[in-house]
Design a protein that fits this description.
alpha/beta, 2 domains, two-stranded antiparallel sheet, 60% helix
């Protein structure tokens, strides 16, 4: 059976390789600067970013059932990683949290929790991503203008700016914004053009007043032997396994990474020209194994990433081979051309991250959320503000509380329809909704006990209801018993509690 599966996989590989091979080159060119940039924004070694991309390509893609998804270090996790490394105090301790997060994701996949993303309000998720975008922008602005600690004198901010780096960043942003509009040229990925432009300008500026300093360039270790390569790996500190803070960070990474992965998978499936559906539970298993591997070897937490995945789809990728091959190209680049990679100015990577942050928090998103109504816009904006001014977990928690308030309010408002009819406005009609929970008890009670004086009869219609909570039934029964004292005629239709149906048509004579 295993041989049959392997032969089928090899046959598929041979058939689609002509599409997947060139797509893998495009994804590699997009992923290389992103891996470096996200590692830089996360406060982690740049080698960790490349290592995460390699594992995301080779390990995760080989397990994942998604044909187009590409995994690697994600911009959405930079805030968590940066704060976690500082909070835990040691990178080795942080790596343990990544390993545990991978185990949690593995368990989530096994227990078939792939639908977890559907239980989070979309307004909160979009607010979280927008806040991450704003945070990325704020953190990358100093690097975009070449500000380093050894340049700043603490008195004049302009003395800390390296104008060569600032020019490189501005030109890189211009390329990222306008390059896609050139149809004949946009087959070459814009991030690759940015990297080549940065390397060229960095070399051209040497010996001038715009010259960059060593601190303005990427710095990954160059290896000349296998022993030196293996020496780059950092392993988690398992002695911190009982550290409560490690487990908090691990659960945070696991939940946020899983949500981002599931959202990315859903988005990628929508742009898949073959409209295939990716198995979400299998994807969580793949991400769990990937994060366990990454954390054990010294990498960053990873997710399925929409930027690289969409580049894969747009480049004509057909199967997960393209993602696997892109991981191999990252490994080859790390081993074969580290000197060339170290010629990339950090201002280039800052420009790529600024552009990524803008796409996460673009003004059009705020306008779109406002157009959906205040019940979507307010939780969205509060989540954005809370994440920016506190931290990701606290901000998302606050956003969920606000969104829950609006959900409960909508539930209470939509539990019934109430109308006053009749020539003299003498009849009240209360039509119950399909689901009436205990949350609707108070508004229904207030409506029944605050009828206008002109009302002489009341109809309570439950024929459309599949479930009416027992508490609401008690309110209706109490109101029915008090109808005589109010001088009302009351009629009940199909008022249901679980499987018991009360079909009652009763007219109580008005008390004279």
């Amino acid at each position: 059976m295993l041989g049959t599966r392997m032969s089928a996989f090899l046959k598929l590989s041979k058939r689609d390789l002509k599409y997947d091979f060139p797509a893998s080159i495009v994804v590699f060119l997009v992923a290389l600067p992103l891996c470096l940039g996200i590692a830089m924004a996360s406060g982690a070694p740049l080698f960790a970013g490349l290592l995460t991309g390699i594992i995301g390509g080779i390990v995760v893609a080989s397990i994942s059932g998604s044909p187009l998804s590409v995994s690697g270090p994600a911009a959405g996790l930079t805030v968590i990683v940066l704060g976690a490394i500082q909070q835990l105090g040691a990178y080795e301790t942080f790596l343990l949290a990544v390993v545990i997060a991978g185990v949690i994701q593995l368990v989530l996949g096994i227990v078939k929790a792939g639908m977890i993303g559907n239980y989070f309000p979309s307004s909160v998720i979009l607010g979280m991503l927008a806040a991450i975008g704003i945070t990325i922008i704020l953190k990358q602005l100093p690097l975009a203008v070449g500000m380093t600690d050894d340049q700043a004198d603490g008195n004049n901010i302009f003395s800390a700016i390296n104008w060569g780096a600032a020019i490189i960043c501005l030109l890189s942003l211009a390329v990222l914004i306008f390059w896609p509009s050139f149809r004949k040229l946009n087959k070459v990925p814009a991030p690759l053009v940015v990297v080549l432009l940065g390397v060229g300008l960095g070399y051209f500026f040497q010996g001038t007043s715009l010259a960059l300093f060593p601190a303005h360039f990427v710095s990954i270790p160059a290896v000349s032997s296998f022993a030196e390569f293996t020496g780059l790996f950092v392993f988690p500190d398992f002695s911190q396994i009982v550290n409560k803070e490690v487990w908090i960070v691990a659960f945070t990474i696991a939940i946020i990474a899983s949500l981002e992965t599931l959202l990315s998978i859903e988005a990628v499936d929508k742009i898949d020209p073959f409209k295939r559906n990716s198995p979400t539970n299998r994807e969580l298993v793949a991400q769990g194994v990937g994060n366990m591997t990454s954390g054990f070897l010294g990498g960053l937490p990873m997710t399925s990433v929409i930027v690289r995945s969409s580049a894969n789809a747009n480049a004509g990728g057909r199967t997960r081979q393209s993602a696997m091959l892109h991981g191999i190209w990252l490994l080859v680049a790390l081993l074969a051309i580290p000197t060339l990679i170290n010629m990339i100015p950090l201002a280039c990577l800052a420009a790529i991250l600024l552009h990524t942050g803008y796409k996460l928090a673009k003004p059009a998103l705020f306008k779109q959320m406002y157009g959906k109504g205040l019940d979507q816009f307010i939780p969205f904006t509060i989540t954005v503000a809370a994440v920016v001014f506190t931290d990701l977990l606290t901000g998302v928690g606050i956003g969920i509380l606000v969104a829950t308030f609006y959900i409960l309010r909508a539930n209470m408002q939509n539990a019934y329809k109430f109308n006053i009819i009749g020539e003299n406005n003498n009849k009240a009609v209360l039509i119950l909704a399909e689901e009436v929970s205990f949350l609707n008890k108070v508004p229904i009670q207030q409506k029944l006990y605050n009828l206008p004086r002109s009302v002489e009869s009341v109809l309570i219609d439950g024929q459309h209801s599949k479930f009416i909570d027992k508490d609401v039934i008690e309110v209706i029964k109490d109101f029915e018993q008090n109808a005589l004292s109010k001088g009302l005629n009351i009629e009940l239709q199909d008022v249901t509690y679980k499987k018991k149906t009360f079909r009652k048509k009763q007219k109580l004579q008005k008390v004279v």
